[in-house]
Input
Amino acid sequence: MANAKSLTVLAVCGSGVVSSSMISQKLEEILSPLGVKVSVTGLLPTSVQSYVDRGGIDFVVTTSPIPGTINVPVIKGIALLTGFGEDECIEEIKKVAKEVLAKKAA
Amino acid sequence: MAGVVIDEKLIELGLSAPTREQAIKVLADKLYALDYVKDGYYENVIKREQEFPTGLPSAIPVAVCHTEAQYVKQSALVVATLAHPIGFREMGTPEREVQSEIIFLIALKDSKQQVPWLKKMARVFKDRVVLEKIKQSTSKTELTEYLIQLFAPE
Output
């Protein structure tokens, strides 16, 4: 990756747009204070595996179960919509983001 | 109209329906009456609800039913408060059910253009005060005005 401080994330929901749009805004809010540039693509659950297999995706945040085997971290993002367990979810996103960035820098 | 229509005609207060399908039917009919959606809209909402449930265990449980853009002629938001909670399967955890007290039926013609609007919508679910105010509404006019304010561009 050219820029060690940038992440490419998939936001996944049943429509590929509605709740994933809501999540993408949260991801920016969470990650930009860490100096991380995040590029978010909204996607349907059934498209995730082939998309991730092509490479370049750092992690996935989803409101829907995803079929198949996803070889990057998958974080459940419903808490970002409801507010319940949101702090834990935010911490998990930060933790995964840091781990991914550390691996890229190595 | 480019925006998302919020209108008294798209509000239902104290809706009493035995099933979620029947509740959604009442709300979808409001969109048909205004010619905002195409044939098959209701069936598609139901189908999607089965595949991708939209019950949210928010501060006050809600359901955020929606469908693909192809069935929508004019973007609009339908809101219903319920006389009795209705069970909706939970988004992301379909084996669980939430007892929703408010239904938001979101009809979006071009969801990508509505991203700023969706971000405002996301704030509504997390705000108990806002949800409580919607739930306690007794006037369609007042609720409509309140919703317009909530979704006003910044």
In short: The interface with chain A takes residues 48, 51-52, 54, 56-59, 64, 66-68, 90-94, 106, 108, 111-112, 114-115, 118-119, 121-122, 125-126 of chain B (CB under 8 Å). Chain B has a mean pLDDT of 93. The domain at 8-150 of chain B is CATH 3.40.930.10 (Mannitol-specific EII; Chain A). Chain B has five helices and five strands.
